[in-house]
Model the fold of this input.
Amino acid sequence: MKSKRITKHLFPYKWNLSTANFTKDKGKVFSCFACGGGSTMGAKLAGFDVLGCNEIDNKMIETYKVNHNPKYAYLEPIQTFKSRKDLPKSLYKLDVLEGSPPCSSFSFGGNRDRDWSKEKKFAEGQADQVLDTLFFDFIDLAKELQPKIVIAENVKGLLQGKAVKYLTKVYKDLEAAGYYVGHYLLDTSTMGVPQKRERVFIIGIRKDIAKPFIKKDGIFGYKLKLDLTFNEPEIAIKKFYTTKQKTPEQNYLVKRHGDKVVKLHKPLSTVTTVNRYWVDNNTLLDDETLIKASTFPQDYVYPYNNRQYMVAMSVPPVAMAQIYVKIYEQILSKIVD
Done:
């Protein structure tokens, strides 16, 4: 009798939308701050049915629609979306409401508390927003829709310095909206993603179904019984990087502040919208490598040719798929409606 083959990675980092098996049998999801659809793809890979999205950036939502053909797509600020009285009934029966509220106010790559409560003007042209209030607009939407699970992704800086007070308010507001809450600092390089991207994931379980999934513990008086431990081996960039020398037209390129030097025997550092990644003094990583390091599908369509921007702004699909699998196995599959 042959032994069962052990697979090191639950999901492949190289994959295609056209050949992926999306079973859509694990639950219903709606995505806010959806960007190009990274978290949506993660939910789909894990077997969830993503009904649609809300996004403020026209280019992002057009990219989302080209690749995902959502049943519902709302191009508008979350402040107006949360107040809609014409939302379909299916959005009031969600298993998961998820979103990644814009986070530069809490990133150590930005101005942090100097930017709190200030409107941000976006280069992409969408409406100005006060970034540190968007999380609470998202919570207002959760209070209205009452999904079983709420997932919110944000930067590591949310756990440091003055931002901890902000996190405490997120807990209190989610609790007031009807949820028990936990947060997890996760590193995508332990989740089958060839990128070391540390992010905070805040998980809420609706109180009326939460009793089997919480215990008395922690600084908030309770703790979620949700294990988000991942121990998949690191994936080095050298596994899929193909050397491409600069063309003569690129000779004017020189290293600039914020650029990164790549260690090919390691996962890539966090992909950002502006940094460039050098292999040596004559070689930059190309977009194809950044896409693979972000676990975006190889056949994803980028109508505006903004590939690095798109993958940098999105949660790596494989990382999100890993989280959805854990949530389904440990919580949603055990709930009897």
